[in-house]
From TrEMBL:
InterPro entries: MsrP, OxRdtase_Mopterin-bd_dom, OxRdtase_Mopterin-bd_sf, TAT_signal
UniProt subunit comment: Heterodimer of a catalytic subunit (MsrP) and a heme-binding subunit (MsrQ).
HAMAP family reported for this sequence: MsrP
Lineage, opening ranks: Bacteria, Pseudomonadati, Pseudomonadota, Gammaproteobacteria, Oceanospirillales
Post-translational modification summary for this protein: Predicted to be exported by the Tat system. The position of the signal peptide cleavage has not been experimentally proven.
NCBIfam families in alphabetical order: PRK05363.1
Gene: msrP
Enzyme Commission code(s) on record: 1.8.5.-
Source species of the chain: Halomonas organivorans
Protein name (Swiss-Prot/TrEMBL): Protein-methionine-sulfoxide reductase catalytic subunit MsrP
Cofactor(s) listed: Mo-molybdopterin
Bound cofactor: record note: Binds 1 Mo-molybdopterin (Mo-MPT) cofactor per subunit.
Similarity remark: Belongs to the MsrP family.
Matches recorded under Pfam families: Oxidored_molyb
Length: 338
């Protein structure tokens, strides 16, 4: 099996900086804004970068310990001026999580009581070391990393979010894929009692929510299994206790509240592809040149924004991660494989 993995040192986002340096740099940038630089950014976006407004949740002790240990270091966005971190309230209040409704504020309103302890994940299919793993057994052996990523929704809004988690590659390697494994398929919890969106008879989605990656995409060092954000555990509306984050693809690939990971031979059919195959593909790589039939992907609204400051920016190829991931698609027609 040929797997092309970039060295972690290739990651531009991974300039790990001691938090003190990070904070003073933030303060410096904040001062710049006072002088009128970086008008596109709201003062709110800067002020929240030290996570001081993030409420402490009720994560289990082992997870709190992991999160605390990893948030002592911080990762500075490659371009803090352009990529200011969204305020926690925006990242946890404006969500897509159709299991809790289709409105952007539904998940924050309705996901609070989702029971995430205990949580286990089944890993099966083309693996020699599968099984059902308690979340702690799955995540605790790995060092948590903080990654500040742009999240670009196919609806043409985006946010910069600091995630905490583990490389998906580590979990997959421990499962020991067989030579037949070519894709990874993910499924979200199905529990209509807890997830009102799954009770609705109007739902577009045939539950569970399903996503998939090619194995080399899944093993790419940018691909993260997040258990936290903003230095704390994930809020339920953001996909607690475990969600995928694939920063160079449209947000719908970043499946939430994962309970099942399968290594498979065939390319999975993901939920949005099943609903509207002409609009949403399997690859879903962010691409300003490839538009779905009904709208343009050339630009995006970077949140938070306002009526007076829509904060519209040009969308970048692979969401700005082309240096890291373009090689995965060498020779592929990205218009055909959208
Ligand atoms: N299970 C599940 N995962 C999901 C979704 C969903 O509806 N259900 N929505 C996706 C979409 S369209 C986006 S843009 C991101 C949003 O993540 P966020 O709410 O943490 O910003 O989650 C993705 N993961
Ligand atoms: Mo999305």
């Amino acid at each position: 099996m040929l797997i092309n993995i970039a060295k972690p040192s290739d990651l531009r986002e991974s300039d790990v900086t001691p938090e003190s340096v990070y904070l003073s740099r933030r303060r410096f940038m904040g001062g710049m804004a006072g002088l009128g630089a970086g008008l596109a950014l709201s003062g709110r976006a800067r002020a929240n970068a030290d996570y001081s407004d993030v409420p402490d949740g009720d994560a289990p002790a082992w997870l709190k310990a992991k999160l605390d240990a990893s948030r002592r270091r911080a990762i500075v966005p490659a371009d803090p001026e352009k990529d200011a971190i969204a305020p926690f309230d925006d990242a946890s209040g404006y969500n897509n999580f159709y299991e809790f409704g289709t409105g952007k504020s539904d998940p924050a309103r309705l996901a609070g009581d989702l029971e995430t302890q205990p949580w286990s994940v089944v890993i099966d299919g083309e693996v020699n070391n599968g099984g059902r793993f308690d979340l702690e057994d799955l995540a605790r052996p790995s060092r948590f990393e903080e990654r500040i990523y742009r999240l670009r929704c196919v609806e043409a809004w985006s946010m910069v979010i600091p995630w905490l988690g583990i490389p998906l590659a580590e979990v997959i390697k421990r499962a020991e894929p067989t030579g037949k494994a070519r894709y990874v398929r993910f499924k979200t919890l199905v529990d209509p009692e807890q997830m009102p969106g799954q009770r609705s008879s109007f739902s577009l989605i045939d539950w569970p929510y399903v996503e998939g990656l090619r194995l080399d995409e899944a093993l790419h060092p940018l691909t993260l299994l997040a258990l936290g954000m903003y230095g704390r555990e994930l809020p339920n509306q953001n996909g607690a206790p475990l969600r995928l984050v694939v920063p160079w693809k449209y947000g719908f690939k970043s499946i939430k509240s994962i309970v099942h990971i399968s290594l498979v031979e065939e390319q999975p059919i993901n939920s949005w592809q099943r609903i509207a195959p002409e609009e949403y593909g399997f690859y879903a790589n962010v691409n300003p040149q490839v538009d779905p039939p009904r709208w343009s992907q050339a630009s995006e609204r970077r949140l938070p924004n306002s009526l007076f400051s829509p904060n519209t920016i040009d969308t970048r190829m692979f969401n700005g991660y082309a240096d890291e991931v373009a090689a995965l698609y060498a020779g592929m027609d990205l218009r055909e494989h959208f």
